[in-house]
Amino acid sequence: MTDEKLETTEVVGSEPTNGFRVPVKRILSEKDMDLFKNSITKTELLGFVKDLNHAVTGITNDAEISGVAPERAVSRIVEILEKVTELIDAHPAADQTSRFGKPEFRDLYDDIQRHSSQWIKEIVETDEKYCDGKDGNDSLVQELATYFNESWGNRQRIDYGSGHELNFLCFLYCLKSLQLIVESEYTAVVVKIFVLYLRIMRRIQNTYWLEPAGSHGVWGLDDYHFLPFLFGSSQLSTHKHLRPMSIHDPDIIEMYHKKYMYLGCIKFINDVKTASLRWHSPLIDDISGVKKWSKVNEGMLKMYNAEVLGKLPIMQHFMFGSLLPAPAGVSPESEHSASEDDHGHVHIPNTWADCCGIKVPSAIAASEMDISGGLRRAIPFD
């Protein structure tokens, strides 16, 4: 995929002289979705996903990755993610009997937002062309920080879904567009950065009982994530012995869940939902019948394209800036796009519950509580 900066075909409002700007939501209708589906922006973003997916074929989470210098952006991102873990320590969540998210998450979110601009400025300054000591990089930092901040979930609803995960992907894509991340570092981007991000998000989900952002999870995969199933099936695609059916073997899951993202996801689901996969995750159960991981990976890529990048309930939250420009003809910025109360989108008939119409209790919370409301471990998922 090319590293050339995409040309913006439409500009809304005032634009900084250097071209960077705070991303805004622009997809409000099926017409906008059709324009996005045929846009260069969508093609380039999906191409980035494909390149990352290919970069971890046969690579385990604990593989030794060489060639990433400490001063490179990849190393700085890892340092920033470790700082996020320190902020989690600084905002412990209180015990509660509600099945819904814990309000202490908002304190964590606010703290990440307070620090993110300075953190990202340090990433940007890993490239000498941004090390002029002036304030001209502020709009670039704010553009990147918008995606980074929205990677951790929704502050108001205390939920998380594949759209938030997509924001983290957009953050990485923007760094690639700036050539702060290069193709030779893609393996490290997945196994060093994304794996760490996933680990942190699992901790946040467990600590603050984040609700799934939608009534169906990610179409029967995981309540929160999609990309670890895609990247994880690529990791497993060259394995000589493990097969998709292996996800039903507890010993294999216990032995390999730290090495392969896909198996790590299965362990997370098994820990939270104690009934069988066939009952609460039928799609995963069906996929386990596929003979080869390579076929699973091909299907996951098609599914990500169709069910995440191709669905209005998710993509109406997508934000366009200078590095991910909006295609010509899409709706102008909504006047409510920054409003937490209005959520910055419209509800489409028969799909509204898939984005925010119904609060969905956290399965993590269910696994921590007994029927009377007291805390415990491991009850059957309900």
Automatic annotation (TrEMBL):
<dbReference type="GO" id="GO:0003755">
    <property type="term" value="F:peptidyl-prolyl cis-trans isomerase activity"/>
</dbReference>
<dbReference type="Pfam" id="PF03095">
    <property type="entry name" value="PTPA"/>
</dbReference>
<dbReference type="GO" id="GO:0007052">
    <property type="term" value="P:mitotic spindle organization"/>
</dbReference>
<keyword id="KW-0697">Rotamase</keyword>
<dbReference type="GO" id="GO:0000159">
    <property type="term" value="C:protein phosphatase type 2A complex"/>
</dbReference>
<comment type="function">
    <text>PPIases accelerate the folding of proteins. It catalyzes the cis-trans isomerization of proline imidic peptide bonds in oligopeptides.</text>
</comment>
<keyword id="KW-0963">Cytoplasm</keyword>
<keyword id="KW-0413">Isomerase</keyword>
<dbReference type="InterPro" id="IPR043170">
    <property type="entry name" value="PTPA_C_lid"/>
</dbReference>
<dbReference type="InterPro" id="IPR004327">
    <property type="entry name" value="Phstyr_phstse_ac"/>
</dbReference>
<comment type="similarity">
    <text>Belongs to the PTPA-type PPIase family.</text>
</comment>
<dbReference type="GO" id="GO:0005737">
    <property type="term" value="C:cytoplasm"/>
</dbReference>
<dbReference type="GO" id="GO:0008160">
    <property type="term" value="F:protein tyrosine phosphatase activator activity"/>
</dbReference>
<dbReference type="GO" id="GO:0005634">
    <property type="term" value="C:nucleus"/>
</dbReference>
<dbReference type="InterPro" id="IPR037218">
    <property type="entry name" value="PTPA_sf"/>
</dbReference>
<protein>
    <recommendedName>
        <fullName>Serine/threonine-protein phosphatase 2A activator</fullName>
        <ecNumber>5.2.1.8</ecNumber>
    </recommendedName>
</protein>
